[in-house]
Amino acid sequence: MRGAAATAALVIAGVAYSSWVFDFIVPTGRDRFRSFLSELEEPDVPCHRVYEYGDIVAGGAAVAAALILVTLGLRGVGARTAVAAVGVFGVATVADALSPMGTAPLVHAATSAIAVFSLFVTMIAATWSAYREGSWPILKTSGAAVFALVTVATGWMLGSDRLQGDYLLGLAQRIQVGSMSVWLIVWGISLSVGTWWSTRPGPNPRPEPRTR
User: Fold this and answer.
1) In this predicted model, what pLDDT tens digit does every residue of 80-118 receive, in sequence order?
2) Burial (Cβ within 10 Å: 0-12, 13-18, ≥19) of residue 42
3) Could you say which of 10, 46, 92, 178 is the most buried, measured as most Cβ atoms within 10 Å of its Cβ?
């Protein structure tokens, strides 16, 4: 039951963290290839509460997932680090939503950096745990592929921010955040699969041959 609750919390976090796709339903007028996602939460943006509440729900769900996972008694440094880091991500994401870029730019910059860094730590630790500690088997394949996409998009963002010219920084961020959302969902699914795999009955042992 707790495993299913943790899965649900991670899936909710992933879905809510992608609230920026609502911009495709109700356009805000922002350039999706060049604007930052934080701009969607500015008071002058139509339906800005959707993006603000999306981050609050995502952060709250991530914290809930971390608290539930702690009760499962996960073993291994990688698994425990991933759980702690996703909890920090959740807190920072809520704080980020409550500190808009236009009204509290310094706080917003700090909370955004902490949220992204914490989620990176989560992905690295969870992937390492999948390979070295046998946790969450799907993270060895699908999770690793999504993590690679996050890494490429992040490199694109960092490079674009330091170079002069039009490098579609907004598009890079949308790919980064979208991939992070997918990764959280994949982690949640992997948690359920891992729990099922570890609790399913094994094959019946063969009977020992009789000897005279």
Assistant:
1) 999 999 999 999 999 999 988 777 889 989 999 999 999
2) middle
3) 10
| pLDDT tens-digit series, residues 108-145 | 899 999 999 999 999 999 999 999 988 898 999 999 99
φ, ψ of residue 46 to 5 degrees: the values are: -60, 135
From 93, 130, 128, 97, select the one nearest 113 (Cα to Cα).
Answer: 93
CA dihedral 149, 161, 112, 26 (to 10 degrees): -80
- Asked if 145 and 183 touch (Cβ cutoff 8 Å), the reply is no
pLDDT bin (cut points 50, 70, 90) of residue 209 is: very low
pTM here? 0.87
**Domain parsing of the chain, residue ranges:** 2-196
> Where do runs of H (alpha helix) occur along the chain?
2-16, 48-71, 77-97, 105-132, 142-162, 169-199
In the numeric block, which tokens belong to residue 5?
A: 């609750």
Which tokens belong to 57?
């729900």
Report the 10 Å Cβ neighbour count for 90. 26
> SS3 of 185, please?
helix
- Burial class (CB within 10 angstroms; exposed 0-12, middle 13-18, buried 19+) of 179: buried
**Strand, coil or helix: what is 28?**
coil
Confidence (pLDDT) at 29: 87
